[in-house]
Amino acid sequence: MTKTILCIGAGYVGGPTMAMIASKCTDYRVTVVDINPQRIAAWNSEDLPIYEPGLDDLIRATRGKNLFFSTDVEGGIRDNDIIFVSVNTPTKTFGAGAGMAADLQYWEKTARQILENAQSSKIVIEKSTLPVKTALAMERILNSQANDISFDVLSNPEFLAEGSAIRDLENPDRVLIGSRETDRGRQARNTILEIYARWIPRERILTTNIWSSELSKLVANAFLAQRISSINTISALCEKTEADVAEVARAVGMDSRIGAKFLNASVGFGGSCFKKDILNLVYLCRFYGLEEVADYWERVVGINVYQQERFIMSMLTAMFNTLAGKRICLLGFAFKANTGDTRESPAIFIARRLAEEHAEVVISDPKALGNARLDLAKIDGAFHYIEDPYEAAKGCHALAVMTEWDLYRTLDYEKIYEKMDKPAFIFDGRNILDHKRCFEIGFNVYPIGKPPLTHFEV
Ligand code: UDX
Ligand code: UDX
Fold it and tell me: Average pLDDT, whole number, for the chain?
């Protein structure tokens, strides 16, 4: 009998993860369902709903063979006994915990849908990032009916990062599976472990109790974001003292206890996870009366806002204290390179603040202009969307690098400079440009956490 797997939620996590499982476990039939018919239609087309390097090839190799996308959630539940759930868990926008707690309504709705349609026992796996103890609530809902069907809930959080999702799925640092320490729990865990063990060395598959697993995902994201906020605070100090944040990060990161990764000072971190998960952690700490712990982690998000506002203030001060009527080109809008995703992108904050200063904003990005349009639709301001960076920069007073796309490292800045208003400025929110070279061309260059290079007399 063919083994089957269902995934509910065909998003950035569900789609790529199931494609990888299908490609590594060709004897499994993998079905991904979603309530959004446009999303499913896109997964079934040549124009996938998300951009991710390597995803097209993976989908081409598996779709229609042992990977299927469908809107039939109920049928999927009936036909599959292993169900991954990766529906979204956004920050709650209403009622208790608004702006902080996770909105679990989609999760609970999905649990009830599983309960209503299940005709046999199921293993239900939390793929979405969830507050600690969510599995308990799920178990209670799922096992609320007196019949012979039983449900085992596991936690198996996904650690992939966008832009490198396929590489991360193929070669993860670790896979984490949390389960109940009962015979049934262990049996369910082994069923999932067997899937990953097809391509991941056993020593990298970590098993823990279910609450540790749920919490580890929140903590991993909080620690990653904390490193960025930490180096960003130091970038502010570097700008005051003529130290260079890249040199400091290098010196600090060479300590093997600290490590070199995730120490790039930037305009701020974005993405759908970091802010949401930290606020979720903060909410949990407050819920359990741990005010000091909550305050500690909340500052990581506070510093991220500070860093973005600092970027705006640096533009304003450098450009003679007025941005009104000036044309400013944002190079990049995605929250990081190699994705079209703009969720929580610092570029949204920067575009909004520039509009508040009555600047005209030209937005350029190789993959994210569609999402940028949606993000800025509700914001008042003069926004233009031009994919070609040379066209976008024409007639602008300043360039502001928002995303570390490789493309921006190798543009002909001499050609760009010629077509810009003078004095021309560069604000490098990612420290990816050759600042000295740009200065020599004639630009006034403002990196993050490094002394600016300007042609003005001090
Ligand atoms: C989501 C969560 O945001 C994140 O917390 C978690 O770690 C993984 O899942 P992502 O895949 O990026 O991340 O979310 P998104 O791209 O929004 O995909 C979720 C999908 O679930 C959407 O396509 C949505 O239509 C679908 N969905 C939502 C359902 O199929 N049923 C629902 O009831 C709700
Ligand atoms: C993150 C986690 O890395 C991943 O493990 C988890 O599953 C989901 O959340 P993601 O948000 O996709 O992944 O991207 P990530 O590479 O972590 O970058 C997040 C943000 O931090 C981006 O805006 C990025 O530009 C920024 N960043 C990252 C920095 O500003 N400096 C750095 O040194 C690293």
Answer: 96
